[in-house]
Amino acid sequence: MVGVAAVAAAGTVVGVTLATRTDVQRQSSKAPPFAADPTARPEVAAQVREALKAWPAGTARRLRILAARYPHSALVRLELGLALALSGQQADAASAWQDAERVQPDSPSAVRAQDLRHPGSAPGLPPFVPSFARVTKGVQAHLLRGSAYQQVLRPVSAEREFLAAVRAAPNDPEALTAAAVGLYDKDRPAAAFSRLGPLARRFPHAQTVRFHLGILLLWIDQLAQARKELQQAHDEDPGSPLGKLASGYLSAVRMAGTG
């Protein structure tokens, strides 16, 4: 994916990508991998590992039992979906992944489940990238914490911090941009774009708005418009951190376009 290549080229961490996409599509004999999730209770993670050892005969059955025992565990439902997908039960797998997102949305397992339901999309969620290197005011502390939550795949906690930033500085384009980025969902990408579009008109020279609009466009594979937004972000201040990062994304997009 172009979005992934651009992120890698720019050195931005967007999260952990499971090596299960190929497994789900091409293999049926290999046991599902265990996807560590720090938000899962240790005893739940241990029981999931044991269930995976029963592959192929008993894994799905054991994971269904665990799903009933731990109704709020996204990890169990993520792994159940993988077991079902590798057994050829794609519809049931998608249902299990949707359940993972529903029961524990603020978890790496929920983010990975959404990735697996959208295999054609860039993995993870588009990141908010702060324009500052050092916190000098309260709104920036919220933005930095939100960005940190994104990097460990905790989107609900990230969104909470971004909204706190908006409350602290309701007319700050960076806070408003972060809140818009935090709304991105692969099932409903319009929620984020409907906020960023008006911000681009309200703050026509705000580098952060153009930069993140370009990033979100990469996530939905709208490369031509993404290039325009990233170029404008770069041109606003080429020597700034976001300007340099935009240049990295632009280089990656050009390389992908010629590959």
Structural class: mainly alpha
Q: Which descriptor suits the 3D outline?
A: elongated
Q: Report how far the terminal alpha carbons are from each other.
A: 12 Å
Q: Helix and strand succession?
A: HHHHHHHHHHHHHH
Radius of gyration computed on alpha carbons? 19 Å
Report the strand count. Answer: 0
> Helical proportion?
55-70%
| Beta content | under 5%
Poorly predicted runs: 1-19
Report the sheet with the most strands, covering strand number, pairing sense and barrel closure.
Answer: none
Q: Kindly state the mean pLDDT as a whole number?
A: 90
> How many alpha or pi helices?
14
Question: Which descriptors apply to this entry?
Answer:
259 residues; mainly alpha; 14 helices; 66% helix; elongated; disordered N terminus
